[in-house]
Amino acid sequence: MTQSPTADAESRADRRTILVALSVMLALVLFGVAYASFFASTNCRRLGPDLLDAPVAATRGSAAQDVLVGAGVTPEVLAALEGRFGPLASAVHLPFDGALRIGEAPVGVGSVLVTGGGLAVVDGSGDIVDAATFRRDVTVVGDGVAAFALVVGNTLTGQIDALRPLVPGIDGITEGACVDTSAVGSPLSFLHDARGGNLVGLRTDEDGSEAVLELRDHVRGRVWAPPFALPRAPAGLQGSRTSGAIGPDTVVVARRIAATDEGAGGEPSGAVRAVRRSDGGDLWAIDDTAVRALLPEPLAEEPALRLEVAHVDVERVLIVAFPDVPPDALLPPPTFGPLGGLGAPDPRSVTLTLDAATGDLLDVVEGTSPTGRDGAAHADLRDELAGLGLVVTDAVTQGEMTWLLVGDVLVRLGD
């Protein structure tokens, strides 16, 4: 029996409908898989470094002068630098962009570490002996026995979405275990400081509750994490409104104070709090009222004050206080911190100098702290270089050598 033309056409139409439905369903499934793999993928994928295949030799002699002039240093300024700090010994282009800081390298591994958009280990002759670079936007902070590669989610709040230790050694740079701090169910992380192989920051739930002050290293991960009760606020505000710094023996953290503060689950912790670097045990704390009593009028009468930890050393702690921005204004960028000087100091700032052992007031000075995280000698060196006509990203002195970071060029002066 022959099938009618009408039935034939209906059969073909049914097959087309089925094929179209299957194609749409397959496309939706593939789209869903791709969408989920993109948005649910761990940020640790961004922290796989490309390691240096061979050392990068620094240029010397007239070639080093050409490199420095190419970086914008005039011959007159170069002559002034050599007259003050000794002859130009070497210059080398760093293998990554966004260099921020020159730090100490582990003993026997190198002379200095350069961090920023990557990590470079530089020996005493100025050659780059090891380096870690990244194909996507990553920031490396810290120095000493370990630096930390970070995915920075928000520079205003200091939020980091993933971190991985990078450990320089005689056999090269070793990658530590990565922690995805933006994973579902993981407390959010906000960076405050990194130096000497440690990283310190605030960890808090998404609603800003259950806050702790956390210190990490490359071996144990979390070393300690004492609770840090804060006034009620979303997590991003908690990160923006707190500041901390690592000292030789002490970690100091400060938080915003306001007349409208309401504690989450109890009274907030002290406005300025010091803990032992070794175990996180409390040393001293200063509450909101006591901080205001230390400040001159009219700053003490401001309804909300931000406190930034500028510097911590063996003897003293420098805290900068200034009025907070209005609730409907953009968050102020931090003036001090491992991500660089992101914001200019508030002209209404007042600096408190506290005793590092007891928290007692030593001095009150109008204006922002002239000393940053790396100490007075570091600040004085940069000021001296500016007086010679050279503005640098960073500079340090090691014995008879002076290291300068000029753009993406690392310069060594002296013998």
Descriptive terms for the model:
9-stranded antiparallel sheet, alpha+beta, globular, 6 helices, 415 residues, 5-stranded antiparallel sheet
Describe the fold and architecture.
The chain is an alpha+beta fold and 415 residues long. The chain has 6 helices and 27 strands. The protein has helices spanning 5-39, 62-70, 75-85, 235-240, 288-294, 376-387, and strands at 50-51, 88-93, 101-104, 112-115, 119-122, 128-133, 139-141, 147-154, 159-169, 172-175, 179-180, 188-195, 198-204, 212-217, 221-224, 242-246, 250-255, 257-258, 272-276, 282-286, 304-312, 316-323, 350-355, 361-366, 394-398, 401-406, 409-413. The strands form 5 sheets. Strands 7, 8, 9, 10, 11, 12, 13, 14 and 15 form a 9-stranded antiparallel β-sheet that branches. Strand 19 and strand 20 form a beta hairpin. The radius of gyration is 27 Å and the shape is globular. The chain starts with a helix and ends with a strand. The relative contact order is 0.12. Residues 33-40 have low confidence and may be disordered.
* pLDDT averaged residue by residue: 91
Question: How is the main sheet built?
Answer: 9 strands, antiparallel
- Overall strand count: 27
Strand content: 35-45%
Radius of gyration: 27 Å
Counting DSSP H or I runs of 4 or more residues, the number of helices is: 6
Shape: globular
- Derived from helix and strand composition plus strand pairing, the structural class reads alpha+beta
- pLDDT under 50 segments (min length 5)? 33-40
Helix content: 10-25%
Q: Termini, distance in Å?
A: 104 Å
